[in-house]
Amino acid sequence: MPDVKRWKYAVVLTLAAVVVGCSSNSKKELPPAELPKFEEEVQLKKEWSRLIGDGQGETFNMLVPAVDGDVIYAADVEGVVMALDRFSGKVIWKEDLELPVSGAVGAGYGMVLLGTLKGEVIALDTSNGEEKWRARVTSEVLAPPATNGDVVIVQTQDDRLIALDADTGNQRWIYESTPAVLTLRGTGAPIVTNRLAIAGLSTGKVIALDTQRGLPVWEQRVAVPSGRSELDRVVDIDGGLLLSGGTLYVVTYQGRVAGLDVESGRVLWQREASSYVGVAQGFGSVYVSQASGTVEGIDERSSSALWSNDQLARRQLSAPEVFSSYVAVGDLEGYLHLLSQVDGRFVGRTRIDSDGLRARPLVVGEWLYAYGNGGELVGLTIR
Q1: Residue 162 domain-assigned?
Q2: Are strands 247-251 and 242-244 parallel, antiparallel or unpaired?
Q3: Planar angle of CA 338, 342, 343, nearest 5 degrees
Q4: CB 3.0-4.6 Å disulfide test: which of 95, 113, 236, 260 passes with 129?
Q5: CATH number of the domain to which 100 belongs
Q6: How far apart are CA 61 and CA 74, in angstroms?
Q7: C-alpha gyration radius of the chain
Q8: Is 82 among the domain residues?
Q9: In-domain check, residue 123
Q10: pLDDT, averaged in runs of 10, over the chain (383 residues)
């Protein structure tokens, strides 16, 4: 059912409702595909596990942890924020903000950054969790703020980009755009470089702004809304952006996956796709978790499909992540799947959290971190 969040612009849909509603034209929806059996080639070793409060909560939150140095930071929906040694899982500090956290976690330059449903951005000190500053923005923040040490960039549900001073939280500038009439409940996390603040919008566009003044440097449309109904015309960029080298990777719902030149916004390649969770990249290939549950490997040079695995159909997949020679992806029953980057076959599987696993896996070196919907945060390595 629709999740009405801002009547001013119309209806904001929950991702789960859209995925279920669009997955079939029949009155009786098909259930999630049963897990296929396979010969395990890779074993994931659980090095440690820690419960982070209530986890993602009942709404469709994407509270992805963040790593800064040897510390991993994670937050739950009720405002519990924890800093852990990423190798042992040992708690370094814990704070309870007692606020409905919906955008988490950004970390870097001595700050842990969070956004709330009440339209607040909070900066904590990475060393002890003490609050450094708090700022009010225009609406709820559903993605982690990002910083380059000078400014903190926040993307709000109403498609505004706001720059806050990294030291004080004072607003420096605001960029306003008109959201689509109908949007998914969520936004992608912005990316900040020394010069550019980059974000994907609900209209299927990517915008790059000058970090100092908030003026547009370039704008590129990735998807063109089409169809008779407003639901058919939803082309949100909710899965976040990925920057690797000079290429910016982006995927829209009911639109395209594309590689853009980060300096000019020029389209380097593109291909039809539909995803609300994002992409991964490695070894000249791009990996997409489609809204249908298909995982696809794409050759960047030709934009053609290298392989396609549809055996996780309707399992509400997380964003993929490259881990060693594999692609890791979570599902609604809390399983973490490993697929071969070469041909997409299953090579490993483990269950993280019976409540589900919708947050993107986080990979740092030889470690993978998975944060389940119920609050289970796990550090994994390959045996």
Answers
A1: yes
A2: antiparallel
A3: 80
A4: 95
A5: 2.40.128.630
A6: 13
A7: 19
A8: yes
A9: yes
A10: 34 48 58 96 97 91 95 97 98 97 96 96 97 96 96 94 98 93 83 97 96 97 89 89 95 96 97 96 95 97 95 97 97 98 97 96 97 98 93
